[in-house]
Automatic annotation (TrEMBL):
Needed cofactors: Mg(2+)
Species lineage: Bacteria, Pseudomonadati, Pseudomonadota, Betaproteobacteria, Burkholderiales
Keyword Manganese: no
Tree of life domain: Bacteria
CDD domains, A to Z: YdjC_like_3 (cd10807)
Name assigned to this protein: Cellobiose phosphorylase
Keywords: Carbohydrate metabolism, Hydrolase, Magnesium, Metal-binding
Coiled-coil regions, chain positions: none
Length: 305
């Protein structure tokens, strides 16, 4: 793809919520954020315990709906035993994943998505980014080709976006996730005609509270280029026990704030469905925002308490 200098204004990004179907708190938060125009893509755990209950509500929204391929967390009896992320990662990079198991999980989750949505997903990504792993990516693309023919769901590219101002630990994690498979995914996308987001934003340790999240969000959004994807993991507070429940609620607090849309508009950003954007061109890693002042920071979006 061509390299161009990023324009600060007129940047269109996808904001994607992960883990829809996990529980009522996650699903409720995402439906609210979609209705507020803060989220343009929702990644679904098709075998999640709440997915069937809320799929119809989600389907009525103007939003990209994707499969969040899960190979590390057993969400229902039919999932069977799932390996821990570390185990899956080691097996993948050693070429030790059982092809039949991988193929079966992909097929079963696509079946479940189609059964509740009545159509193909707009895109596919992975819970803990497993969709890009060796031994997973090619079987996934093969099944997508066999099922949907010329229709091409877009794929999540995990290569990190601009990391200016991002805490060092978060930047290191973002780079590591990208190293796990973004190059292979982008090569396949270019060769076979799959669409992807430009780069990925939103990687951090899922901790720190609302004020820390607002600071990170400020960096991610200010760094965003046209076609980037910001992932998030919001949930309603205090409803369902889950990992990182308090931080998920903190994300929801920041993302639902009524002033966020105004801040984004003042800083040249628009939330859009990636499936509806035209062809994207890659942009330079070093972008020039000289003489462009951000219209305030985001910390004011949360209380001082």
């Amino acid at each position: 793809m061509d390299i161009q200098e990023t324009d600060f204004f007129g940047r269109r990004i996808a904001v994607c919520g992960d883990d829809f179907g996990m529980n009522h708190a996650v699903d409720g938060a995402m439906l609210q954020l979609v209705d507020l125009g803060r989220m343009s893509a929702v990644s679904c755990l098709a075998t999640g315990p709440a997915f069937a209950a809320h799929a119809a509500e989600l389907q009525r929204r103007d939003v990209d709906i994707g499969l969040h391929l899960n190979l590390t967390e057993s969400l229902c009896a039919a999932d069977g035993e799932m390996p821990a992320l570390r185990t899956l990662l080691v097996r993948a990079w050693r070429g030790q994943l059982e092809p039949g198991w991988v193929e079966g999980q992909i097929a079963r989750q696509l079946d479940a998505f189609e059964a509740h949505m009545g159509r193909a997903p707009d895109y596919v990504d992975g819970h803990q980014h497993v969709h890009q792993f060796p031994g997973v990516l090619q079987p996934l693309l093969r099944q997508l080709r066999q099922r949907y023919g010329l229709y091409r769901p877009w794929l999540r590219n995990t290569a990190p976006g601009l990391l200016a101002g991002v805490p060092l630990a978060d930047a290191a994690k973002a780079r590591f996730i990208g190293l796990l498979g973004s190059r292979a995914l982008c090569a396949a996308a270019q060769t076979e005609g799959w669409r992807t987001n430009r780069r990925l934003l939103g990687v951090y340790g899922l901790e720190g509270g609302a004020r820390a999240y607002a600071d990170r969000l400020h960096c991610w959004l200010f760094n965003a280029a046209d076609g980037d994807l910001l992932m998030c993991h919001p949930a309603l507070p205090g409803r369902d026990p889950m990992a990182h429940a308090r931080q998920r609620a903190a994300e929801f607090e920041v993302l639902r704030n009524t002033e966020l849309s105004g801040w984004m508009g003042a800083n040249g950003l628009a939330v859009r469905r990636l499936s509806q954007l035209g062809a994207l061109r890659d942009t330079a890693e070093s972008v020039n925002f000289d003489a462009v002042a951000p219209a305030g920071r985001l910390r004011h979006l949360v209380s001082r308490s």
